[in-house]
Amino acid sequence: MGRKKAGKCERPVHRGKDTRHKMKGKTMETFTEEMHDALRASMEPELEGAAVVKLPCPLAMWDLGHCDPKRCTGRKLVRKGLVHGLRLNQRFNGLILSPAGSRYVTPADREIVAQAGVAVIDCSWARLEDTPFSKMVGAHPRLLPYLVAANPVNYGKPHRLSCVEAFAATFCIVGFQDLAVLLLRKFKWGMGFLELNRIVLERYAASLSEEDLLAVEKDYLSSTPQEEELDPFDVDSGRTCMNLNRPLREEEDEDEDDDDDDDEEDSEEAETSEKEAAATTSCKESEDTISAENVG
Ligand SMILES: C[S@@+](CC[C@H](N)C(=O)[O-])C[C@H]1O[C@@H](n2cnc3c(N)ncnc32)[C@H](O)[C@@H]1O
């Protein structure tokens, strides 16, 4: 990933919390209201999965076809009608989350997200060299700062987020946490991502500039034991670890649902997600159980 020095942000930095701020399209008040409505609608048991929830900004994805469609988090969001597909060479005007980015998502990106949305590139981590990043065109490519994946394939790995985790992280950093929750609730393990990264996400969301955000990252990394130093039996570590004796069940695979995508299943996922978040986070990578090739 092209981690470069902090540069100047494209737009003037502001705290990003001023809901009175006027935007070109809709006001921040309208956006916030629509965001709350979307989360509420997505949590209505009778609506969940039945109708497409209207999001306040577009979410998009270039699909490189590298991943197993059943296990890919981006494809699942497309099936749910929450994300739309983009063609190669098709331009996207919002933030583009890209391993080839050089600038970082910061709270100053709030307006870009609110007006033009967020896109991801659904490709395999193992095939970044085959990925034609130049054909995913837009003015705002972005890297995410240090965050740890909670998805079952790359659990515990820094930076290797799935598409849904990347969307969610962006929404948290720019202050639209409801949208992060709305997307993550679609996955059993989803809320575990917020649990795992809560402290650092809050700090990123409070940063004043890209430089500040990178200082937060550096400080966090120097004060947090890294994976190899983690003792899963240290109850005071502040990290939750799953029972290492508990085998990963088949249905805990990357994508726990199938194409049925029915409501009941989704609300079950949502209900279980909080329990999962509290009780299951693994200090053990799960790649020995699930082939990483399938999910990238
Ligand atoms: C490489 S794909 C893998 C998708 C995975 N197969 C899934 O099921 O979601 C993940 C995408 O999420 C975004 N992403 C993940 N981690 C990122 C990071 N640290 N910085 C920028 N974008 C990131 C990028 O768009 C990246 O291409």
UniProtKB/TrEMBL annotation:
Residue segments, region Disordered: 1-23, 225-296
Biased composition (Basic and acidic residues): 7-16
Subcellular localization, as worded in the UniProt entry: Cytoplasm
Protein name: 18S rRNA aminocarboxypropyltransferase
UniProt similarity note: Belongs to the TDD superfamily. TSR3 family.
Enzyme class: transferase
Biased composition regions of type Acidic residues, renumbered to the chain: 250-271
Catalysed reactions, as listed in the record: N(1)-methylpseudouridine(1248) in human 18S rRNA + S-adenosyl-L-methionine = N(1)-methyl-N(3)-[(3S)-3-amino-3-carboxypropyl]pseudouridine(1248) in human 18S rRNA + S-methyl-5'-thioadenosine + H(+); an N(1)-methylpseudouridine in rRNA + S-adenosyl-L-methionine = N(1)-methyl-N(3)-[(3S)-3-amino-3-carboxypropyl]pseudouridine in rRNA + S-methyl-5'-thioadenosine + H(+)
Stored HAMAP family: TSR3
Keyword check for Flavoprotein: no
Taxonomic source organism: Denticeps clupeoides (denticle herring)
RNase L inhibitor RLI-like possible metal-binding domain sequence ranges: 58-90
Amino-acid positions noted as binding S-adenosyl-L-methionine in the UniProt annotation, renumbered to this chain: T73, I121, L144
Keywords: Cytoplasm, Ribosome biogenesis, rRNA processing, S-adenosyl-L-methionine, Transferase
Gene Ontology CC terms: cytoplasm
GO molecular function, one term: S-adenosyl-L-methionine binding
InterPro entries with a match to the protein in the record: RNaseL-inhib-like_metal-bd_dom, Tsr3-like, Tsr3_C
PANTHER family reported for this sequence: 18S RRNA AMINOCARBOXYPROPYLTRANSFERASE, RIBOSOME BIOGENESIS PROTEIN TSR3 HOMOLOG
